[in-house]
Amino acid sequence: MARRMRRRRTRKEQKKRFQRFITGLLIVLVGGLAYHYWPTPEGGSIAKNPEPRPKSKRRGGTGQTIIPLSRSEKRDISPATPKPKPELPSSGIRWLQVGEEAFTNKHLVKARSAISKAIDAGLEESAYAHARALINLINKDLVFSPAVHKGDPISTRYVVKAGQTLAKIAKQWNIPYELLLRVNRIADPRRLQIGQTIKVVKGPFHVWVDKNRFFLAVMSQPSADGPNLYIKFYRVGLGEHGSTPTGLWQVRPESKLKNPTWFDTRGGRVVAADDPQNPLGERWIGFDGISGQAKGQSGYGIHGTIEPETIGKNASQGCIRLLPADVEELYDLLVEKKSTVQIVSR
What we know:
- The chain is of the alpha+beta class and 346 residues long.
- Helices cover 32% and strands 19% of the residues.
- The protein has eight helices and 15 strands.
- Helix 4 (108-121) packs antiparallel against helix 5.
- It is elongated, with a radius of gyration of 45 Å.
């Protein structure tokens, strides 16, 4: 009897042990499946995205520990922002810099060429003002002095021949004889001598007027397909209410006058040449319209003024006003039937 009881207890214990084994086995299986397929915040499963364990690496025996970053940490690191490339100066500014360097080194011919290219390429207002000032300063020597610079495409030395006068020489070079008087400091043209060496300047010169900026530019084009060379800039006054017509004009034949009489087209008055109230001043250069608003028009021109405060303003009856000294210099540059005047508004 006792033996039977022991056998029963042994079977029960074996059954319990088996049940515990089965239960433990199920727990392990369920845990393994959960570990393998349970989703993570980064996506995927724990088994597929195991958290890397820190590894120790030694560099040069220093014992420095390097802990690699997790995926989430790597994702939070923003890429380095590339530094913006420095803005390159415009072509106008680059040419102006070339011209400034040449001017500093006293290479005036190169300086004028580079600054002229800078103006044609376009400059903002302060740089444009600087370029105008440099052009006027450079040409004070290149054009308006007796000096001749090597490589200058518009000036050279000339030896006076028998039978020649300043007027004949000037016509040969497409300039007024007054420019030869001014450039060579000649007080009396009748004292010109055979064999005398003088400076001559190649013309004709042309004019470009900017209505918005109230500037007049004198230009030379040494060759038909070559770039412009700027010679001089002048401040001007223009027609009230924008009445100065834009377009292309030509200096009219026999229109250049010294000490002109003024015929008032509005009031019908006639003001004598020597009258201090004559608004034309000491010079008049008349135009014929060729194209644009100017086409077919006449009666407009360039003259001096007895009201210097109107320079830089729209105050005339449509003509272009200059200060007395400026209009006298411009008068000596322009040739009838050859010099043109381009008036623009932009």
